[in-house]
Amino acid sequence: RNEYIEFALANSLMLKSLLTDILDMSQVKAGKFLLSLQEFNLYEIIKNVIQLMKITADLKQNKIYLEYDQFLSQTVTSDQYRIRQILINLISNSIKYTKKGNIYIVVTKENEPKHLKIQVKDTGVGIKQEQKQKLFKAFEKIEDNRDLNPQGVGLGLIISNQLAINLFPKNIYSKTGLQCDDWDKGTVFSFLLFDYSNRDSSQQE
């Protein structure tokens, strides 16, 4: 019975995330997107997201692992709710296209000051080169394996891409937004995170 309650809770949170995605997209298009910057424990946020997604992952017999650079501070200043949103979308996407496999969330430090890199890697079906053109188009899904029966409306990646872009200070040139690459076992999505510690929040523009 507890499993049914947890599954219902997970689905309600996913629905809330979808509604938030749609609202955020409208704010981005209207130029009214604002960050809510605060100090938080990034490691704990990711662990909480993994716990949330575990039930859905278990249904596909997938395992989720976190690899957090031991030399990297767990405390950062950014918009934890947007980061959580991106992670939910990316992990959910990996679960859709992975069966009896593994999903890895990897957090590392970049060479540039205050730059962190977050990767979501899976051992799923992968993405063909011609399909990558559809990734950031609304209501597009990768139909590659009927056995996986992917669900969803196809908004997650395009909204996550916009969120990742807006998480970064606009006056800093960087390759922001979602990046999609292949690796030897499946697909990896990554984005850069800027740590606003010791930085005036007004400087985000």
Automatic annotation (TrEMBL):
- Pfam families listed in its UniProt record: HATPase_c (PF02518)
Give the Histidine kinase domain ranges. Answer: 1-164
The Swiss-Prot or TrEMBL record annotates one GO molecular function as: transferase activity, transferring phosphorus-containing groups
| Coiled-coil ranges per UniProt | none
The answer to keyword Phosphoprotein applying to this record is: yes
For this UniProt entry, which residues form the secretion signal?
none
Q: Which SUPFAM superfamilies match?
A: ATPase domain of HSP90 chaperone/DNA topoisomerase II/histidine kinase
PROSITE patterns tied to this protein: HIS_KIN
Its keywords, alphabetically, are:
Phosphoprotein
Q: What is this protein called?
A: Histidine kinase domain-containing protein
What organism, scientifically named, is this protein from? Answer: Ichthyophthirius multifiliis (White spot disease agent)
